[in-house]
Amino acid sequence: MAIRISAPAENNILEVVYGAEAIGDWEWARDREDVANAISSTNRSRVLIDASALPSFPGLVLIQEHNEQVAANEVLSAAKFAVLFACVGEPEQFLHITGSNRGIRIQCFTSKDDALVWLSF
After folding, report:
1. Residue pLDDT, tens place only, 54-113
2. CATH number of the CATH domain containing 31
3. CA 35, CA 114: separation in Å to the nearest integer?
4. End-to-end CA distance of the chain, in Å?
5. pTM greater than the 0.85 cutoff
6. Domain that holds residue 75
7. Cβ atoms of residues 43 and 6 within 8 Å
């Protein structure tokens, strides 16, 4: 399943929603490209990613490679990401740590309200 990307009029935040299907390497590559294009076309650099419906999160190697690609992309590396999960465990913490270590402004949340507040600063 492809991600759903929207730019609600009520805020200046780009919203990305994942469905309930597992994601693989090629899908993350496509999703990165789609998000970068949406950031460029909407001129919104604050991104809420709702991954709370995902049944599982990709493995640690894929997470690390994903963050390397985000950090290497000029558009994505300039953005600020709040990622919403059903719960925050080891893979989600690894996403945050490896992203932050590469200069990505990223934080993981289990509350959409908290994520939106963090993105507003």
Report:
1. 988 888 999 999 999 999 999 999 999 999 999 999 999 999 999 999 999 999 999 999
2. 3.30.750.24
3. 22
4. 32
5. yes
6. 4-119
7. no
